[in-house]
User: What shape does this take?
Amino acid sequence: MTQTGHLTVEGMSCEGCAKRLREALERLEGVSAVAVVLDGGQVTIAYDPAVTTVPILREAIEETGFDAVP
Assistant: This one.
């Protein structure tokens, strides 16, 4: 079963940032799709909750150098 999470991310300033974040999230086990909207810092992630969790997704965002806003 797949869930969709919507997160706000601060610190992205260009398409390169969006690409770096998208690629980092896509590498996570259990993530099946990622859409990043640079304007407004919105990230939509389709993931399997049996494999990964929102805290793990947030950690990956922060390890990539951005801030996941609660």
